Structures are given as structure tokens and as C-alpha cells.
């Protein structure tokens, strides 16, 4: 009798597992379908695209769309392709990733392991800044950048990214370092190991998981940003997301879907590469920083 019951349960478990995998595969195909359409459209000739068959594989690979999007696509009044704007985004995103991550590590270290009078209040005010809607500060920030001479420039945009990245990176590192055993910190103080020496020798090397989280978060947010980039730059300093929007808007005549799709894929490749390289460490780093808060 028990064998029959166990057999029924085993059959039910297998059916449920098959159903679960079926649902997951369905969701996977649903989310990958737009990417598939973008990729196959980007390597089709315009004649083949206009002939129909959205989901069909290309009869012949045609990389005209990629070449045109990278070298000759018109953005606003300039027809230099996406390359200059990719470079602008790379400069802004790299600086806005490295600097807030480094400062956030020091802030989190000080606010968790070497607390001072008023540190909790300081952390609360800093954390408050992470939840202020960006739209509220657009005009004050633009006025400030104009006052210091950085308006409509890549430097001003990068500065904005750095300022608004600091609350998040500080939060990540503070929540990570707060789980450090205080006995270790106290022993280091007794042995005469100073603030910065302990940071470089012990704290920073052990914070690699949360550092990866900070890097992925900052790079993705700054690279994909459109709000700040569209309001605080001009054409020469525009990022790739602004260029992509203007590139699509100024298209005239016959709609070149292959060029549009290639440009969109080019704009998204860096963040995709970051996730492919370091994505498996992202959840691990988040869990490491969620032990205490």
C-alpha cells in the first residue's frame, strides 16, 4: 500500500516538475522573442525586411545595418554614427562607477566599523538622498552646474552621476561591513593597526562581492540613464541613449529597420557584457550585504 502511495506521489512530483519547467521555458521564450527579432532584423537586407516574415531567419546575412549604425547614422545634424556617443557614455559611466564605488567603500567602512558621534544621523541623511526622485532635483542641479561652469558638458553629467551614486554605494558597503566581527576590529586597534591600514589589508579585500554589486549597479544605471543625459548635455557631449533617441526621431524617407535594430543592440551591448561577465556574482554580493542592516 505504501509503495502505491509513494509511486503516486512520485508521478505527481514528476508531472508538477514538467509543468513548472514548461512554464519557465514559456516565459524564457516570451522574454527572448524581442531580442531574437532585433538580432535577425539587424542582419537582414531592407528588401527582405519589407517583404515580411518578422520571425524568419535571414536568407543571407547582411551587416549593412551594423556598419551604417556605427559609422554613418545621423544623430541630430551630425552623421557620424553611434561611435562618438558610445565613447561619451563609456567615459561618463566608467568614472561614475569607479569614483562612487571607492568613496562608498570608505563611507561604509567608517559608518560601520569606526563609528563616530553622529554617524547614524549622517547615514540616515545620506540614505534619504537615495530616495529623492530625480525629477525634483533637475532644475537645482542644472542651476548649480551652470554656476560652476559645467552645464551642458560631459563633466557636469559625470559629476551628477557620481553624486547620486554615492548614497547607494555607501548603503551597500555599510550593510556589508556591519557584519564584520567587532572583535577583529578591536584586536586590530590593540595591535596598532590604523584606520587606513585595516581598510586596505582586511576590509577592502574581503568586500569583493559587494564591490561587484556596486559596479554592476552603477554602470548599468549610468549607461542606461536618459533623464539626466537628455537635460544636462548638448549634442557633442550626448550619451548613447540620447543619441539613440535622436537617431530614431530624425529618421526620414524609408524606415531602415535594420539600422535601427543594429543601433539599439549596439547601445545595449556594454551592459549585457557586464552582466554576462559578472552577473553570477551579483546575487551573491547582495546576499553578503544583507546579513545585517
UniProtKB/TrEMBL annotation:
Q: Is Nucleus among this UniProt entry's keywords? A: no
SUPFAM superfamilies, A to Z: MetI-like
Domain called ABC transmembrane type-1: residue spans: 86-278
- Give the source's domain of life in one word: Bacteria
**InterPro entries with a match to the protein in the record:** MetI-like, MetI-like_sf
One short Pfam name that applies is BPD_transp_1
Q: What is its main location?
A: membrane
Residues making up the signal peptide according to the UniProt record: none
The alphabetized UniProt keywords are: Membrane, Transmembrane, Transmembrane helix, Transport
KW Transmembrane (keyword) present: yes
Membrane topology for this entry? Multi-pass membrane protein
Where does the sequence pass through the membrane?
A: 18-39, 90-109, 121-148, 154-177, 198-219, 261-283
Q: List locations, semicolon-separated.
A: Cell membrane
An example Gene Ontology biological process: transmembrane transport
Q: Which GO terms describe its cellular component?
A: plasma membrane
Which protein family is it in? Belongs to the binding-protein-dependent transport system permease family.
Output this protein's name.
ABC transporter permease subunit
Source species of the chain: Oceanomicrobium pacificus
Amino acid at each position: 500500500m505504501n509503495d502505491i502511495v509513494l509511486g503516486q506521489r512520485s508521478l505527481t512530483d514528476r508531472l508538477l516538475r514538467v509543468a513548472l519547467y514548461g512554464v519557465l521555458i514559456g516565459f524564457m521564450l516570451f522574454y527572448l522573442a524581442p531580442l531574437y527579432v532585433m538580432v535577425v532584423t539587424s542582419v537582414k537586407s531592407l528588401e527582405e525586411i519589407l517583404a515580411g516574415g518578422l520571425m524568419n531567419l535571414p536568407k543571407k546575412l547582411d551587416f549593412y545595418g551594423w556598419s551604417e549604425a556605427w559609422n554613418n547614422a545621423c544623430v541630430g545634424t551630425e552623421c557620424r554614427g553611434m561611435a562618438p556617443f558610445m565613447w561619451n557614455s563609456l567615459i561618463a559611466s566608467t568614472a561614475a562607477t569607479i569614483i562612487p564605488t571607492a568613496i562608498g567603500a570608505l563611507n561604509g567602512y567608517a559608518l560601520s566599523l569606526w563609528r563616530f558621534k553622529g554617524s547614524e544621523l549622517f547615514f540616515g541623511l545620506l540614505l534619504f538622498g537615495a530616495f529623492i526622485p530625480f525629477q525634483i532635483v533637475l532644475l537645482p542641479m542644472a542651476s548649480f552646474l551652470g554656476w560652476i561652469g559645467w552645464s551642458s558638458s560631459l563633466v557636469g553629467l559625470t559629476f551628477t552621476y557620481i553624486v547620486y551614486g554615492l548614497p547607494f554605494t555607501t548603503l551597500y558597503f555599510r550593510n556589508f561591513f556591519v557584519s564584520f566581527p567587532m572583535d577583529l576590529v578591536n584586536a586590530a586597534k590593540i595591535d596598532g593597526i590604523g584606520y587606513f591600514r585595516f581598510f586596505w589589508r582586511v576590509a577592502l579585500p574581503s568586500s569583493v562581492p559587494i564591490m561587484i554589486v556596486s559596479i554592476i549597479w552603477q554602470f548599468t544605471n549610468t549607461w542606461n540613464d536618459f533623464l539626466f543625459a537628455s537635460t544636462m548635455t548638448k549634442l557633442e557631449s550626448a550619451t548613447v541613449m540620447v543619441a539613440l533617441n535622436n537617431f530614431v526621431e530624425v529618421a526620414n524617407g524609408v524606415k531602415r529597420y535594420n539600422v535601427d535594430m543594429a543601433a539599439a543592440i549596439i547601445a545595449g551591448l556594454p551592459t549585457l557584457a557586464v552582466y554576462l561577465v559578472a552577473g553570477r556574482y551579483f546575487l551573491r554580493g547582495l546576499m553578503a550585504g544583507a546579513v545585517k542592516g
